[in-house]
Amino acid sequence: MNQSMGLLGRKLGATQVFADDGLVERVTVIEVGPCVVFQRRTAEKDGYWALVLGFEDKPDKLVKKPDLGPYVKDGSPLKKAGVNPKRMLREIRLPQEIVEKYEVGQTISAADVFESGQFVDVTGITKGRGFAGVFKRYRMRGGSRTHGTHEAFRHGGSIGQCMTPGHVYKGKKMPGHHGSKRRTVQNLRIVDVLDEKNVILVKGPVPGHARGIVTVRKAVKKSAAKS
Description:
With 227 residues, the protein is mainly beta. It contains four helices and twelve strands, in the order ββββαβαβαββαββββ.
């Protein structure tokens, strides 16, 4: 599990920038933060250490009482933090020494966590493709198109046995819903950090559609920044 600091963000799209050596780099633009610390999970109270972060303001008229937290009155996390309602709340597990650095209600920007040349892991929900066959879903080759093959060009072939075991195994690759899965792309290098806009440019693709919510964390496999 990635135990490094991270922030919530929104994927804005893709573009290209020129590096110092004149080469073109294709990058993904991510609006990261500012995020607000809503709650702190502690080992004494919750059994583990974590931060609950909020991202992007939500109009008060859209906030329902159950969304305010377990206690609608003074015990509400919103009122304790003293911040406006947010569209997205997410919990990030962290070591004790990192959690203790932040206070409830504190605002964290992209420049406070990330810097140019750093490697990050980005987690998001992939694009939904709807109901798809085995060709598109699992890249199967298909059957023969000669020697009397009839209406089985894009089928998956045999899916089970007759006598033994007499049923289809669970997890058999068959047509079904494609996409809309939680995926993480690791070791993406930050090309640039735009402090005034809370935007980072990462080299490479990021899961999800434009305007989709993502979580950006320091890379777990690459700790040292490289140019």
